[in-house]
Amino acid sequence: MKLPAFHPWVWRCTALALACLVGSGSALAEPDDDTLDRWLPSTTQVAAALNASPAIAAARAQREAQLERAQAIQVGPHEWALRLSQHSRRVQDPSSRFNETSATLERPVRLWGKADLDRQLAEQNREVARIGLADALHEASRQLMLRWIDVLRAQREAASATRELALAQALHRQALVRLRQGDIAPLDARLAEAELQRAQAVQLQAQARQTGTQASLLHLYPGLPTPTWPQADAFAPTPGEEAGEALRIYLNQHHELNLMRAEGLRLQRLADRLDKDRWPDPTLGVYTSRERAGAEQVLGLSLSVPLPGQYRQSQARAAQAEAQVAQDKLRQMELQLGAEFAARWQQWQQGQQALAATQAAAEVQSQAAEKSLLAYTLGEHSMTELIQNRRLANEQRLARDRLQLDQVQGWALLQLDLHRVWDLDD
């Protein structure tokens, strides 16, 4: 498909954001073959799930309705009309009566180039229908992706809660043993028991959320596999494409924007067509009549032309104004999407830096928790300090997993919008 051109001022308005991206060497690249594949279902699985969705079935039916309306526009509304009449003629001098009949066949005719304009308008309606289905598929893919990653997030939170519960159980068992040996005070044993109860409650809540999100995903998209956290979860895609070029591709391929472009062009075609309606279509016909019981035969042509008034002029001016509204909204949407793309990419780039820092912090906190356990065994840390350090280590690891999943989601959505994953356009 030929990529549409942009309004020049859109590029000027987004120059500042692009300067920040290009100047810092930021870029978007083709994803590594195994980077997102480890986190997301395959295109084949997604296509099968979406094609079985009632929402996509409705979108396809909507496209068929639009295609049929386009065909109706192309052939035009005019049809043949047949008029028959039967009447009786009475003559007084000399007195006589005659049965007479007449028949007329007529049809309005599209003139003034209206047939060609209707063909162009119909073709533009077909383009709107095509892009509308593509937009529905894209939005459905986005919703599936968000739900999939939400399940992964719930799974990771449940795993963290299970891990924290196991630590609390081990600590509680150790506290009971040491209490019987007289090595710790009863208060420490009560603290370990309270920590166990808290961990049990957190684990039940996390497990319930995981079960709910997973059941919702598989119910909405039957046939999808169950999401699983990849064993090799390192995520560091290598940028290789300049941000300005990526922005151009993004705006060219953005379905909602392309739908607005197509709709704007459709409204302009409609305005041109209504402007031609200021010159009404004549109706041509042929008629025949049998008069005086067949003594006279009449054959002729008929022509009728509506006399246009203010109504046609107002309709044409209103359509032209609506076409201009669509163009103005399109320019605003181009500007808005360009700014959002720059912000999304900058946020993802900074998130990668934050992820590296969070990973380092998680490792340090994990080592601190191990040392705290040793210190508690030697009597150098209290039960409260041990519980706090273990909880902080687990929370820091969970924070790292959450941020990593946020980064995966941000990158995957960018690649989806650039049509580099799950490209389901018909």
How do the strands and helices of this protein lay out in sequence?
Blueprint: H1 8-13, H2 15-23, E1 27-28, H3 43-51, H4 54-75, E2 81-92, E3 95-108, H5 114-181, H6 186-220, E4 241-242, H7 243-253, H8 255-276, E5 283-291, E6 296-304, H9 310-377, H10 383-417
Antiparallel strand pairs: 1-4, 2-3, 3-5, 5-6
Helix pairs in contact: 4-5, 5-6, 5-8, 5-10, 7-9, 8-9, 9-10
List keywords for this structure.
two-stranded antiparallel sheet, 67% helix, single chain, disordered N terminus, four-stranded antiparallel beta sheet, alpha+beta, 426 residues
Structure description:
This protein has 426 residues and is an alpha+beta fold. The protein has ten helices and six strands. The chain has helices spanning 8-13, 15-23, 43-51, 54-75, 114-181, 186-220, 243-253, 255-276, 310-377, 383-417, and strands at 27-28, 81-92, 95-108, 241-242, 283-291, 296-304. The strands form two sheets. A four-stranded antiparallel beta sheet has the order 2-3-5-6, with no helix packed on it. A hairpin with a 4-residue loop joins strand 5 and strand 6. It is elongated. Mean pLDDT is 84; it is low at 1-34.
